[in-house]
TrEMBL record:
Coiled coil: none annotated. InterPro entries: Pet117 (IPR031568). This is PET117-like protein. Its main location: mitochondrion. Keywords: Mitochondrion, Transit peptide. It is found in: Mitochondrion. GO terms for cellular component: mitochondrion. Belongs to the PET117 family.
Length: 107
């Protein structure tokens, strides 16, 4: 073999070996990172649970406002349903355009 071919072969082997070692190193780092994910999640959930047990309120006031709005909207819808049921009781039947009566489930 000529000197140039030996050098090319050696450099190719070194690059291949470095690539294999690098890939194994990256895989090990990814495996460790994936392993830390559930641990961090469990820790975060436990901290949140303890914070809620201590009576702490959520730090985001927009979430509280949205929750309050949703609860008030729900109550308003329940009152409207009662009002309309008193005016016209719900039978659970659906009358189609052709006059066919279809039984529905009552909620």
């Amino acid at each position: 073999m000529s000197r140039a071919s030996r050098i090319t072969f050696t450099v190719s082997c070194l690059i291949t070996a470095a690539t294999v070692v690098g890939v194994h190193y990256v895989q090990e780092m990814e495996r460790e990172t994936l392993h830390q994910g559930p641990i961090k999640d469990a820790k975060r959930v436990e901290e949140k649970r303890l914070r809620n047990l201590d009576g702490a309120t959520p730090s985001d006031p927009t979430k509280e406002r949205k929750r309050y709005f949703n609860m008030s909207e729900h109550e308003e819808q329940k009152e409207l349903r009662k009002k309309y049921e008193m005016m016209q009781p719900l039978s659970g039947e659906v009358v189609t355009k052709g006059g066919e009566v279809v039984k529905g489930s009552k909620k």
